[in-house]
From TrEMBL:
GO terms for molecular function: hydrolase activity. The keyword Hydrolase applies. It is an enzyme of class 3 (hydrolase). This is PIG-L deacetylase family protein.
Length: 196
């Protein structure tokens, strides 16, 4: 089971949409996003249908994330990087990391936690250095369709940004499009293994 936890309604689709759709072929996927207005919730529901994940919209707090992990028991968590350029992303990353340590001690899950890509693959003090690159060659069209559901957002800009970033990461692993992830240590340890 894979659980994505993100600040905004379009984050899952932009940063890891291809991998979510690919993972849906082998396991279940849920995405937890923070409260937002009804239009953005409706857009996110349409994107969730395209990428075949269950969408949960609820206030993101340490308690709500712990509860969600204990209920869904994900082996893999995707979230934002702790050094992301967007302050909302950093806030969610800090909450998710703290909650994941709590549940890791309680039930041994998640097995792995990964930070996703960011705007132009920038962090505040560095650039993303992926520890895992997932080919999304067969799933990139679904990803673009999902991003396009967010009509209240600058769709053209995000589609262009996503395609350029995934094309760049694809170069590193010999495919057309790939998504980048950085495994975050849980209590000082990484699994160093693939999610598939
Ligand atoms: Zn965001």
């Amino acid at each position: 089971m894979l659980l994505g936890i993100f600040a905004h309604s379009d984050d899952a689709d932009i940063w890891c949409g291809g991998t979510l759709l690919r993972y849906a072929e082998v396991g279940s996927v849920a995405v937890f996003i923070d409260h937002c207005d009804m239009q953005r919730v409706n857009e996110a529901r349409c994107a969730a249908e395209v990428l075949k994940y269950r969408l949960v919209v609820q206030e993101i707090s340490r308690a709500s994330v712990v509860e969600m992990i204990l209920e869904l028991r994900p082996s893999v968590i995707f979230t934002h990087h702790f050094d992301d350029v967007h302050p909302d992303h950093r806030r969610v990353s800090a909450i998710v990391t703290a909650a994941a340590i709590e549940t890791k001690i309680q039930i041994g899950l998640p097995r792995q936690i990964f930070a996703c890509d960011s705007y132009a693959s920038r962090l505040r003090s560095a650039t993303i250095e992926p520890t895992m690159l997932i080919s999304i060659d067969n799933w990139v069209e679904g990803k673009i369709a999902a991003i396009s559901m967010h009509e209240s957002q600058p769709v053209e800009h995000f589609v262009d940004m996503s395609l350029r970033q995934t094309a760049f990461w694809g170069l590193r692993v010999g495919c057309k499009h790939a998504e980048a992830f950085v495994e975050l240590p849980l209590l000082g340890r990484i699994s160093n293994s693939a999610i598939f």
